[in-house]
Specification:
Blueprint lengths: L1 H25 L12 H10 L19 E7 L6 E11 L7 H4 L8 H7 L12 E10 L2 E8 H4 L4 H8 L4 E2 L1 H10 L15 H5 L28 H4 L3 H9 L29 H12 L17 H12 L2
Antiparallel strand pairs: 1-2, 1-5, 2-3, 3-4
Helix pairs in contact: 7-12, 10-12
């Protein structure tokens, strides 16, 4: 009887192993490029750039070599008003293009054709840089979003596009996503609402086309904190996010999230040195009831890591 149990168990393990090998061998034969890129998918890959993580252009994984996302309310070339404002993705000279620009076939049917013929993405030159936008068109009777090389179509250069946007309308999305990954935020948060009651609070799960060209997706491995795929739709306050990253207990007294105040750097937006020891002492006094109000949170410097992280949260997670 014992031998029969062993035999059946060995057979079961063999079947499971064989099934897993079939998935390994035949699964990749499915062409995931058949998934048509959505606006979300195009926005993600254009704002994140070549890859998030270790690469030759960013060996220390600090967010170097990433494109810059801007919000334009006027044409960088002519100065004409753009209403409603338009999102543009600026690749400075030498910045590697996103996967969909280098390999248009991964954009999906219709998106590839329009991006190449109307959007002229094949004319983009990495050595001189380029500016990209997203437009909507029609292909075989279906509406699709596609990429426009605004440098070729509109004559926009990276430098004049950044000047037209100004710092107020500049978002360091690619750098922010890098910080999210390197800080290990995905250990506690997911970017993948489930097809359950999650829909009622966290929003709908992503489509296949939402992930075309995004590397990595950083779906997350556990959920100790809430899913944040659409967090900016629930809370779009930059002030709240600033306080939350400096010390989560300022806005959620029972939060188990660690502080990320070190991402603020050494100085605030005015160049004043941030005295972390004094701030923590004042906050302890506030918690102990020795002062009425908590200490003021410093406003992040323009080149601080936390500014980029908040840019990514409020720009991409909608």
């Amino acid at each position: 009887m014992g031998f029969q149990k062993y035999k059946f168990g060995a057979a079961g393990v063999g079947l499971m192993y064989g099934f897993s090998m079939c998935i390994t061998l035949f699964g990749p034969s499915n062409d995931f490029r058949s998934g048509i890129s959505t606006w979300v998918g195009l926005d993600k890959q254009l704002s994140l750039g070549h890859v998030i993580g270790f690469s030759y252009e960013d060996p220390l994984v600090v967010g170097a070599g990433k494109p810059i996302t801007v919000i334009l309310d006027k044409d960088p070339k002519t100065g004409a008003a753009i209403d409603p404002p338009q999102r543009a993705y600026v690749y400075k000279a030498g910045t590697k293009f996103s996967p969909g620009i280098n390999h248009p076939d991964m954009l999906g049917s219709g998106v590839q054709e329009l991006s190449e013929s109307t959007g002229k993405i094949g004319q983009a030159n990495m050595s001189s840089g380029a500016v990209f936008t997203i437009a909507q068109g029609e292909f075989n009777g279906e509406e699709v979003n596609y990429v426009i090389n605004a440098s070729a179509v509109n004559g926009w250069s990276p430098e004049e596009t950044l000047r037209a946007a100004g710092d107020e309308n500049t978002r360091y999305v690619g750098e922010g996503k890098t910080i999210y990954v390197t800080e290990g935020c995905w250990w506690c948060h997911t970017l993948l609402p489930e097809e359950t009651q999650d829909w009622q609070h966290f929003g709908t799960p992503p489509f296949l086309g939402d992930m075309n060209g995004e590397m990595p997706t950083a779906f997350g491995s556990d959920r100790k904190g809430p899913d944040i795929l659409h967090v900016a739709s629930r809370n779009s306050s930059r002030e709240w996010m600033t306080m939350h990253f400096f010390n989560p207990r300022l806005v959620q007294p029972n939060s188990i999230m660690p502080r990320f105040d070190y991402l603020f750097g050494k100085v605030d937006i005015n160049g004043n040195t941030i005295d972390y020891d004094k701030w923590r002492a004042d906050y302890t006094a506030y918690v102990n009831g020795e002062r009425i109000y908590p200490p003021e949170v410093p406003e992040p410097a323009r080149d601080s890591e936390v500014r980029a992280l908040i840019d990514w949260v409020l720009t991409s997670l909608r």
